Amino acid sequence: MSEDKQTQSEDFSIIENFIAALNIEYEEAKKNNIEKQIILENGERGEQLGSKFIYTFFLDQDLRIGRAKDDMPVQLIIGDENIDASIVSVTEKKVTISSDRDFGPILHQATLKIDNSYLIEKLKKVYEEYLETNEGKINLNTLKKTLFQIKGKISEEKPIIKKETLNDEQFQAVKTSLGSDIVYIWGPPGTGKTHCISKVIESFYYEKKKVLLVSNTNAAVDIVVKNLGDRLYKKDKDFDEGSVLRYGDIVNETLSKKYGEYVNKISNDEYFVYDYSPKENIDTKIYIEEPMEDTKTFVSDEDSEDGEDDFEIFLK
Model pTM greater than 0.85? Predict the structure, then answer.
């Protein structure tokens, strides 16, 4: 067997093992998954985001116990209809849901249907399709570094930002993040991980790096974007012209009010970028089918199986 074929075989073996693990997790999730149905009443329609209509419901139970998460696809059962929707945000006794349908100022009653295994199945399909077609956006080199199959670069770089509000450990994390391929930042709740992450992104931002931030909740991403806005607004002209983009629904009212027009709220079914032309004092909204390739900083969120907010940062 040639060296290239052996390497490809080893790469496929890693993915096959991962799929096998996902299969076990998926079957277990299905076994334990009592398809949850919750009665929702008197949902108030809020501000429309793009083509989405937003409804907020107050509950007698904590949906998070059922592992309901931000951005989770759900179904609303209204009469005989099953309507696709998604959870924008979920807190202790409040859930906000988006849908393409306008149900009027008040949605008097609907049944919320939740399936907790959807994310595992979605992830599994991505890897299965890659094995079948050998095509896709899976970075095998990064995957192997993440799984400690190959050694990644580990070093430090001096950041442009000052230490200021960071303690020694947080500043160390920023320096290591700038100089290394893969970095894991761990700490108990309340130790400043979110603040540290925002400083890591700020450091990459000033180095003109493209950054993608993902987390398991909209709220967690909003906090990081707000922290960036507090430090970049009126200090960095690129921020004021839309260099930081928030993909998905903003749930933090402070972020929306202070920086919403700058971080360009993008609905889940539309991608757009503002092309600013200072000389003519105009801006052009351009709709495209795929996420932007030339954006300095791109902020997004995704689901995680943890109860606590997790972040991942990807650079290009």
Answer: no
